[in-house]
Amino acid sequence: MSWIENRFEDNLIITSLDWAINWARRSSIWPLTFGIACCAIEMMATGASRFDIDRFGAGAYRPTPRQADLMIVAGTVTYKMASRIVRLYNQMPEPKWVIAMGACTIGGGPYFKHGYHVVKGVDLVVPVDVYVPGCPPRPEALLEGLMRLQDKIRRQTFARQPIEAATSA
In this structure, what DSSP letter does residue 68 have? Predict the structure, then answer.
């Protein structure tokens, strides 16, 4: 008989605060409805019944950045569009994440050499958490990217660094 038995009432769950908050965050990701080019078609297909992004807790696409915590940038980012992406990103509440979907979003795509108007990667505009390669990437690839984002959220911690470690760095 261990020392912890009979110390707590029935139906009591003990866990860390990090685990509970991260479980809630990764189980209710709300993506921003934001598609620029052909990758947006694949993003919409991910929300359809065949692939069903709702299984992962991310099916509530939000029409406004103030209600979203995930921006899926899907399509060719031009310099004219870059300022709008930054504005939408800044309007999103913390914590916020970004998935770059497609070859045009990640590195400029086929417009890399000859397209003077194309940003050579959305990571030059906003910080990107997960890259989903492809032209256009299949819905399964976006679901894999979402699962990698959930893994990243699972590993987050809210603990502060010790003062000694923070000052010595």
Answer: -
User: In the predicted model, is pLDDT for residue 54 greater than 70?
Assistant: yes
Counting Cα atoms < 13 Å in the Cβ hemisphere of 97 gives 23
65 CB neighbour count, 10 Å cutoff: 19
In 3D space, the residue among 136, 107, 112 whose CA is nearest the CA of residue 44 turns out to be 136
The distance from CA 111 to its chain's CA centroid, rounded to whole angstroms, is 25
Instruction: Report pLDDT digits (tens) over 128-148.
Output: 999 999 888 898 999 999 999
In order, the DSSP letters of 119-166 are -S-GGGTS--SEEE-SSSPPHHHHHHHHHHHHHHHHT---PPPPHHHH
Query: Nearest 5°: phi and psi at 120?
Result: -85, 35
CA atoms of 105 and 115, how far apart (whole Å): 13
Cβ neighbors of 92 (< 8 A, separation 6 or more) are 32, 65, 66, 68, 69, 71
pTM: 0.80
